[in-house]
Specification:
By secondary structure, the chain is an alpha/beta fold. The protein has 12 helices and 6 strands. It has 2 domains: 181 residues, Undecaprenyl pyrophosphate synthetase (3-Layer(aba) Sandwich); 55 residues. Helix 2 packs across helix 3, helix 3 packs parallel to helix 5 and helix 3 packs across helix 11. The longest helix is centred in the first third of the chain and has 24 residues. The chain starts with a helix and ends with a helix.
């Protein structure tokens, strides 16, 4: 592939997260039932994950099924999606092993049907020894729910520690300092993704310009790539195109870019007063 030869292997993202959108619209454009769009979307997952493994992408996370999907979609559609997930896992474990891919999950997976949870545990165990790409499926997932769960976990941990030490929670926070016990690092440890790096790149298909309650905490400094292509039409080459686009960007993380001429450190006189700026504007 020509696009593959353009990639800098030293700048492959460590983690790519994908909002897979457009299955229903893909089917609607072809006068097909929505179910067929989901089925075709599952095939796209196979292609994309296989290419991810070939370029040694360490982590790929797919937004497969949200809490909102579970609550607001027709029961018939949710039931079909669960069957599709079950079929995808059972029929692709060998392919995952052949490509050195291991599968993991994030979300309130305890809310999924028991038989689906059993298949999920089986697939995870069967691929656990693989050392290549980690495929994470976000299932019954919502980022706000994840942050709530992380907060609850932190509170329970603090209460348990206070009880163990024979003091109140208030005393514990006073003794240790609330800033030292409740901060970003402590909360991040309770997220579903605590074991993986934050995404470098978020891809959204179908042209929609929104995040849809996906990894809100983790994508604070991620680059975002939106394509009009519907998910069932998305293939490995389109993943490579997104990575190539990512590699053309300069990531600043709140700092200044390498090409800027704004080098102000130690130059207090470079900062003009508001009055001077206003005068300059009047005479411009």
């Amino acid at each position: 592939m020509a696009v593959y030869r353009k990639l800098d292997p030293d700048r492959i993202p460590k983690h790519i997260a994908i909002i897979m959108d457009g299955n229903g619209r893909w089917a609607g454009k072809r006068a097909l039932r929505r179910f067929l769009g989901h089925q075709q979307g599952a095939e796209s997952v196979q292609y994309v994950v296989e290419v991810a493994s070939r370029i040694d992408l360490p982590w790929i996370t797919l937004y497969a099924f949200s809490i909102e999907n579970n609550l607001r979609r027709p029961k018939s559609e949710v039931s079909f999606l669960m069957k599709l997930l079950n079929n995808y896992l059972t029929s692709n474990v060998q392919r995952m092993n052949d490509n050195n891919v291991r599968v993991r999950y994030i979300g309130r997976t305890e809310g999924l049907p028991p038989e689906i949870q059993e298949t999920m545990r089986w697939a995870s165990a069967e691929t656990a020894k693989n050392t290549g790409t980690t495929l994470t499926l976000a299932l019954n997932y919502g980022s706000r729910a994840e942050i709530v769960d992380a907060t609850r976990s932190l509170v329970h941990t603090l209460i348990a520690e206070a009880h163990q030490r024979g003091i109140s929670l208030e005393d514990l926070l006073q003794v240790d300092g609330i800033d030292d016990r409740i901060g970003e690092s402590q909360l991040a440890q309770g997220l579903y993704t605590a074991h993986m790096p934050d995404p470098d790149l978020v891809i959204r298909t179908s042209g929609e310009q929104r995040i849809s309650n996906f990894l809100l905490w983790q994508i604070a400094y991620a680059e975002i790539f939106v394509t009009d292509r519907l998910w069932p039409d998305f293939r490995g080459i389109h993943l490579l195109e997104a990575i190539h686009n990512f590699q053309q960007r300069e990531r600043r993380f709140g700092g200044l870019g390498a090409g800027t001429d704004e080098h102000l450190e130690g130059k207090d006189d470079a900062l003009e007063s508001p009055e001077a700026i206003a005068a300059a504007l009047l005479h411009s």
